[in-house]
Amino acid sequence: MSERRLLILYGSQTGYAKDTAYRIARQAWRRHFSVSVQSMDQVDKWSIFTTTYPVIFVCSTTGQGEEPDNMKKFWRFILRKTIPYDALSGLKYAVFGLGDSSYQKFNFPAKRLLRRLQQLGGTPIVDRGDGDDQHYLGLDGALDPWLENLWAVLLDRYPLPKPIVPESVAPDPSCDIDYIDEHIDTSVGKTELIPGTHLAQLVKSDRMTAPDHFQDVHLFEFELDDSTQIPQWSPGDCAVLRPENLDSDVNDFLQQMHWTEHADKLLQIKPRDESIIPKWIPRCTTLRWLFTNYFDIMAVPRRSFFEMLYYFSSSENEKERLHEFTTSEGQDELQTYCMRPRRTIVEVLDDLPCSRVPLEYIFDVFPEIADRSFSISSASAVTPHRVDLTVAIVNYKTLMQKPRVGVCTKWLLNMELGRTVGLRFAKGTMKLPAGPTPIIMVGPGTGIAAFMAFIGDRVSRNISANYLFFGCRNEHGDFLHQEQLQKWVSCDKLQLFCAFSRDQENTIYVQQRIREQGDLLWSLISEQDAIVYVSGNANRMPDDVRQAFADVIADHGVNDAAVYVQAMVKTGRYQEECWY
Asked: What angle do CA 573, 579, 580 make, to 5 degrees?
């Protein structure tokens, strides 16, 4: 019989693909496969050419159809032109993508990965799966039938040596965790920095919008530590922060779990597979440290959370409810209970008092805090030691009428000036031209963030062909970076077109201003090869703005304006960076 092994490789930006990979691993364990789960950038890349057992790839989409950060090295590797066309002729694989079909480049990383694996001679086990956030059951709407098909094919090739482990049996924990003698020399608090991390001190935290404006937008300024090598970031790049849970939230959670008494006792973590826990997590630490710095207790739990919690409930009523949430038939009920009202892990556990997680299973149940990326509003050419972030504070009421503040924005808002944090840099999706090519920027709301760095960089190089379309509700309410923008205008380094949507009887948006400036824009695009950049909320704005440019182009005699715009996209002359 062939070796019953599986390798599951994931590329994950916010944790969904990683969560899916481990869910597949648990199902494989029940079918008696030996399983290894790693991120694509963790795996020994050369080993992929000699792997004799099936490999399952799970990858999400980030930005505008980009590969997740922990997949990029692997992706660049298999794109090498020196790799022979039949290098993967012995590889059997499956690919599942996670994305959102409302985005134009839906699941592009999974599609590109599948195409490249086929080019190198690999053989797919099943058709590619496309998880879609827009499905009424979320990603599981496509994942469940895809997995059913995958297991049918794999079990046909690798017959079961014994019956499938029943769903009523809990999988083994990923780690052995024990309290230890406090006198042992440990590395508590001596965490390794994540590679690429730079220390930075918060020096400014100011509200940018008017006190009576409904949306709080803050400017956070960080000063980079002189003791480390000052990085050079490019206009359009992002700053990556890993937030922490607030002390008050952690204290409430520890009390809820009946762990307060042991929260500060030393414990030793012994992972059964070193790839499970990041290297920067100390192997000797405390529950308080873990639930402050690593586990996201304020997250909206995914299906896998309920799958694991089921095993640890002492109430038959709670077990029945939890089991329903883990079935395909119960996904609509899970959406109603958890996803739509944005119910958090803390709130779920409060609702299920007889369901408590054993210590050794914490790494299997609780998700990790995801990194947050923010477009940098400052230019390294102007302020090489300072990183400015323009951040909209996530603050809303759920369907349960409970106030909710985002984990990262709450952390930033409560941060004292002078606090030192770790900060990393990541490439953005918008690229600024090196020369004096005119740029047309459309940035409503916080979409202006990256453009502040664009303009600052170009002004420092004495380039004045900068055109910005900015939109907000009120000139005196949320005109972000107003003072600096008007300074650039006054010294002829910027042409600024504003749309204050609520300052008159009829609403005015940036797309109307674009049409009004049609002659100017067509001249820039057709005669000077201007580049268009669009940044901001992804709901309707990107499509409306693209249509406005198409209308301008059509008004100037181009028969198929939509094709013209699409050609600009393909050549990098029309770039978008939008988000929900």
From this structure: 150
User: How open is the CA angle 189-192-193, to the nearest 5 degrees?
Assistant: 115
Among 10, 13, 8, 9, CA closest to 100: 13
CA distance 366 to 405: 20
Q: Following DSSP, what letter does each residue of 470-522 receive, concatenated?
A: EEES-TTTS-TTHHHHHHHHHTTS-EEEEEETTSSSS---HHHHHHHTHHHHH
Q: Residues near 47 by Cβ (< 8 Å), separated by ≥ 6?
A: none
- The DSSP output letter for 69 is G
Helix, strand, coil content of the chain in percent (nearest 5): 35, 20, 45
Please give the C-alpha separations between residue 306 and each of 296, 383, 474, in angstroms, as whole numbers.
15, 47, 44
The region, left, alpha or beta by phi > 0 then psi within -120 to 50, assigned to residue 262 is: alpha
Reported as half-sphere exposure (CB side, CA atoms, 13 A), residue 98 has a value of 23
**Across 68-215, where does the E strand assignment appear?**
92-99, 123-124, 129-132, 175-179, 198-207
pLDDT digits (tens, 9 = 90+) for 254-293: 999 999 999 999 999 999 887 788 888 999 999 999 999 9
Residue 147 pLDDT greater than 50, yes or no: yes
CA distance 427 to 462: 24
Q: What is the DSSP letter of 48?
A: G
Q: What is the DSSP string of 238-268?
A: EEEE-----HHHHHHHHHHTT-GGGTTS-EE
